[in-house]
Write a structure and sequence with these properties.
The complex is a heterodimer. Helix content of chain A is 65%, strand content 0%. Chain A contains 5 helices and no strands. By secondary structure, chain B is of the alpha/beta class. Chain B is 45% helix and 13% strand. Classes of the chains: A mainly alpha, B alpha/beta. The interface between A and B is large, with 54 and 67 residues.
Chain lengths: 118, 392
């Protein structure tokens, strides 16, 4: 069987100073995607097992998620992504809350070098 | 109903490739990933700009960045923007990959099924194997689809269409409706609402790809003869099979929108849906001229795009420009800064009849409670579409 082309023609942009950082980001997200696939498979197996303990792989293959189950899975994925990308959210939370003071200020404060009277 | 679909799920139809349990889960992940970026990461760019970039720039230059270029020079060094961009680019690549997997698995049988001729077809398919692919289509693979729209990987290949139909759904995060038809459906609805006397009898969709935007015109104007053209044979093979499976009468032909083989003044309505930014400065002028030649008197051309940069704040224009360099859309920037009045005037239209407007999304009207999401530097269900055009 013919093979589809896997890379889009065109120079791939990189965004970090070291292009390997771009590659690692892509790997982390690729891995996250495969974890989500495993999650759905386990979720399907659990839902089938709740109805009968006699299940086959073909039952998993033929399983069609209802709108309710689809919505629950979408919610799980959002939570999952939020955990995987927590580090990105942290930075935004800091920006949103004005939490961008220099850490040296905190050291100066407790060491008594600050002009702050406390 | 336990098997009812979510309003944002893609409807199954005959031509759409089937997925295994895990293939579907992989695609669903990409959709959630894109949604997550829109909802939780995109906004951080504005925060970084307002709190880090703009104050620093102001301190050094005693003014704010004056245009998208100055914003870009600063933003590309910002860690949040770098991470956002790396994540968005990756989501795009994962989208194509996840849509290729089920197609690759059954490529031969899928192609065989799609090329099967019906005894009594509704519409038709006319291919031109001698058509030269325009350079602007082959220099890079547009929006990072491997092989672009045009590459044929096997005999009578329709794989580009099979991959694309599913990818559009994921890209738009379901916001273009179960049949990805929202842009066409929105224009048809807008025409019916604002020009109720206008009853086109012959309609042409330029750069129709899989015909997802073409189909709604068949429904909206049942008396019309509907044509769709594209340069890419793999897309058209799929478009034809897709339309036939949906019992929609559409005449597809492989042609370049710059030089069409239809007779002068033979159409009442000519439309395109986010096509023009995929062409070139020269091509866009040729296409406008062809529209003028092909329209009957009183006929209308309508082109849907994302909004022009003019009047936008430098930061917003910079963000909307993301695709130009990062998603294989080299003409994106220039096409958003073209003088549209001049464009149609050069093509022979009356500048007084030029229109540029935002129109509501038909799907959003139907699903009024849906949240408005706007992706990276891109469209994808912002709740409305930008259109421009003219009347002959």
């Amino acid at each position: 069987m013919a093979k589809l082309q896997r890379k889009a023609k065109g120079e791939r942009p990189t965004f970090f100073r070291d292009p390997n950082v771009d590659r690692v980001v892509a790997m982390v997200m690729g891995l996250a995607g495969e974890v989500a696939v495993l999650h759905d498979r386990l979720d399907t197996a659990e839902r089938l097992l709740e109805k009968s303990t006699d299940i086959k792989r073909s039952d998993i293959e033929n399983y069609k998620a209802s709108a309710k189950v689809s919505a629950q899975r979408a919610q799980w994925r959002e939570q999952f992504l939020s955990e995987v990308l927590r580090i990105v959210e942290i930075e935004q939370e800091a920006l949103a809350n004005g939490d961008i003071e220099d850490y040296n200020d905190a050291i100066a404060l407790v060491e008594g070098n600050s002009s702050d009277p406390d | 109903m336990s098997n009812a679909l979510l309003p944002t799920a893609q409807a199954e139809h005959q031509a759409l490739p089937k997925t295994t349990h895990d293939e579907f889960a992989r695609q669903e992940f990409v959709r959630s990933y894109k949604q997550y970026l829109v909802k939780n990461v995109h906004g951080g760019n504005q925060l970084a700009y307002e709190q880090r970039i703009r104050p620093k720039f102001h301190k050094e230059n005693k003014r704010d960045p004056k245009d998208r270029f100055e914003v870009r020079d600063e933003m590309i060094n910002d860690p949040h923007y770098q991470m956002f961009s790396a994540l968005l680019r990756t989501s795009q690549e994962m989208m194509w990959s996840s849509c290729q997997i089920p197609v690759q698995r059954e490529l031969d049988s899928l192609n065989k099924k799609l090329n099967k001729k019906r005894a009594k077809p509704y519409g038709s398919l006319r291919l031109d194997e001698n058509l030269t692919m325009p350079r602007y289509h082959t220099s890079v693979d547009i929006h990072c689809q491997p092989g672009g729209y045009h590459t044929e990987f096997s005999q009578q290949d329709a794989s580009a269409g099979m991959v694309y139909d599913r990818a559009v759904h994921i890209y738009a995060m379901g916001q273009m409706g179960p049949y990805n038809n929202d842009i066409g459906a929105s224009i048809a609805l807008w025409l019916q609402d604002t020009r109720s006397e206008f009853k086109p009898l012959k309609i042409l969709d330029l750069g129709c790809s899989v015909g997802h935007s073409t189909v709604p015109y068949v429904d909206a104007f049942p008396d019309a003869e509907v044509h769709g053209i594209d340069v890419a044979a793999p897309m058209l093979r799929y478009a034809h099979a897709r339309a036939e499976g949906m019992r929609k009468k559409i005449y597809f032909s492989q042609q370049n929108a710059e030089t069409l083989d239809f007779e002068d003044e033979s159409f009442d309505l000519i439309v395109s849906h986010i096509l023009l930014h995929e062409t070139s400065d020269k091509a866009i002028r040729n296409i406008a001229k062809e529209c003028h030649r092909l329209l009957k008197k009183g006929g209308i051309m309508v082109h849907a795009e994302t909004p022009q940069y003019k009047g936008m704040k430098p930061f917003d224009a910079f963000m909307l420009d993301w695709d130009t360099r990062n998603n294989n859309e080299p003409f994106w920037a220039r096409s958003h800064e073209i003088d549209l009045v001049k464009l149609s005037k050069q093509a022979g239209f009356d500048p007084q009849k030029e229109f540029e407007t935002m129109i509501p999304s038909a799907f959003q009207i139907a699903e009024a409670k849906r949240s408005h999401t706007f992706q990276g530097g891109d469209f994808g269900g912002g709740g409305s579409w930008f259109i421009y055009g003219n009347e002959k």
